[in-house]
Specification:
The chain has 242 residues and is mostly helical. The protein contains 8 helices and no strands. The chain starts with a helix and ends in a 6-residue tail after the last helix.
Length: 242
């Protein structure tokens, strides 16, 4: 005869297994999509930076890069607004297109900074991202308040960047870069925790819903990684000799 304790243990074990399965399914897709985005960005950046024709096309004036940046913004907004109305395949194509466009913008990094600086910043970013993502995945703390603070700090960071465009202060730029690293490291933990919460609530047998959550999660973490990398590079990077 099954005791109440045995029933409770059985229920807890089943719930724990289901929770773990959901996390595995969702985060496997999230990190796969994120890795795909980073690879596409890296390949595109390398191609553009290695091609004289591409350099002349995109960096001969500010207009082409401005167009790329505008299209990027439109893509992200469209992806967020239309996510529930489009197929997972379409959403993934839009994410990949965004990653490629971002690679065009990131090509300037390869043109300006030394390879050693880029590698150092990349591996430092990877280590920080991994640590913060693991924290966000396993922490029992409610990170909702931290997320709200970081979102407000993000607007402050943008305002500071605009102000420094006119000031041109190297010291202020250094402070902004440090703040950027801290903000996006925190957002990595917050976004990971948010994805974890969504994974607990959805039915992973619903491939469409799971795919949508995974793509949005991959986009958020991709942006956290890229921005953390850029701000670390601004701190640690050495520019090529002209």
């Amino acid at each position: 005869m099954t005791t109440k304790l045995e029933k409770a243990i059985s229920y807890y074990s089943t719930a724990t297994d289901t929770y773990a399965d959901n996390l595995n399914v969702v985060f496997r897709k999230v990190y796969q999509y994120m890795a795909l985005g980073l690879i596409l960005t890296a390949i595109t950046a390398y191609y553009v930076a290695s091609s004289r024709a591409a350099i002349n096309l995109f960096f001969s004036s500010s207009a082409p890069l401005l167009i790329v940046a505008v299209v990027e913004i439109v893509l992200v907004l469209a992806l967020r607004v239309m996510l529930e109305k489009i197929s997972t395949t379409t959403a993934l194509i839009m994410f990949c297109a965004y990653s490629i466009l971002n690679g065009i913008l990131c090509a300037s990094i390869l043109l300006v900074y030394t390879q050693e600086s880029i590698y150092t910043a990349f591996f430092t970013t990877a280590a920080m991202f991994t640590a913060m993502s693991v924290y966000g995945l396993f922490t029992q703390r409610d990170l909702a308040n931290m997320g709200s603070i970081l979102r407000m700090a993000l607007f402050g960071l943008l305002a500071a960047l605009i102000i420094n465009l006119f000031m041109g202060s190297a010291a202020f730029d250094y402070v902004i870069s440090i703040a950027g690293v801290i903000i996006f490291a925190g957002l990595t933990a917050y976004d990971t925790a948010t994805i974890r919460s969504l994974a607990m609530e959805i039915d992973t047998n619903n491939e469409t819903l799971t795919g949508r959550v995974a793509i949005v999660g991959a986009l958020e973490l991709y942006l956290d990684f890229i921005n953390m990398f850029i701000y670390l590079l601004r701190i640690m990077g050495r520019m090529k000799d002209r």
